Structures are given as structure tokens and as C-alpha cells.
Automatic annotation (TrEMBL):
InterPro entries: Hist_DNA-bd, IHF-like_DNA-bd_dom_sf. GO terms for cellular component: cytosol. The lineage of its organism: Bacteria, Pseudomonadati, Bacteroidota, Cytophagia, Cytophagales. It comes from Cyclobacterium qasimii. Keywords: DNA condensation, DNA-binding. This is Integration host factor subunit beta. Belongs to the bacterial histone-like protein family. One of its GO terms (biological process) is chromosome condensation. GO terms for molecular function: DNA binding; structural constituent of chromatin.
Length: 102
């Protein structure tokens, strides 16, 4: 599902104009990005957490040049779903139908 499809669904479910929903969704994403860039994590009860995960310093290999590269410690954004979100997906019949059968 694309962002445009999400906006359309929200507009249909709430009766709010698409332009207003678009502005709200864009503002939400901007707040998430700006807050995380400032080192803040965002917790949405019943949905999940947007967190900054710390990656340790490590040595990697450039295969084409056969040289070692040092990758410094850094942070990457991550999403951790809540327990209720995970349970909803686990119990979803639609997702079970998509899973490959053994």
C-alpha cells in the first residue's frame, strides 16, 4: 500500500477532505523524522515505537579492492511494533492466506 492509498483510505473512513488528510500525514512524518534526528524516540501506545538503534563500530571489507573499511558507531531508525499490533497480525486470516504452504 502506498502513502496515497493510505491517505485515500483515511479520507474515506473519516470523511475528511484528502487535502487535509495529506497535510496531517505529511506533518506526522515530518515530526517523526525531526524528532528522531534530535535523538528522541516516539512511542505510540497500541501501535509501536519509532526508535534510534545504535550500531557499534565495526570493520567491513571492500571486496572489489580487498581492503578493510572502518564503519564508525552510528544510529539507524527502526520501528518496533507493540504486542497488540503483533498479535493482530499473527491472528489475521489475510496474512495467513499469503503465507507459503509447506
Amino acid at each position: 500500500m502506498t502513502k496515497a492509498e493510505v491517505i485515500t483510505k483515511i479520507s474515506e473512513k473519516t470523511g475528511i477532505q484528502k487535502d487535509d488528510v495529506t497535510q496531517t500525514v505529511e506533518a506526522f512524518f515530518k515530526v517523526v523524522k525531526d524528532s528522531m534526528a534530535e535523538g528522541e524516540n516516539i512511542y505510540v501506545r497500541g501501535f509501536g515505537s519509532f526508535i534510534n538503534k545504535k550500531r557499534a563500530k565495526k570493520i567491513a571489507r571492500n571486496i572489489s579492492k580487498n581492503t578493510a573499511i572502518v564503519i564508525d558507531e552510528h544510529y539507524v531508525p527502526a520501528f518496533k511494533p507493540s504486542k497488540s499490533f503483533i498479535e493482530k497480525i499473527k491472528n489475521s486470516q489475510s496474512v495467513k492466506e499469503l503465507a507459503p504452504q509447506d
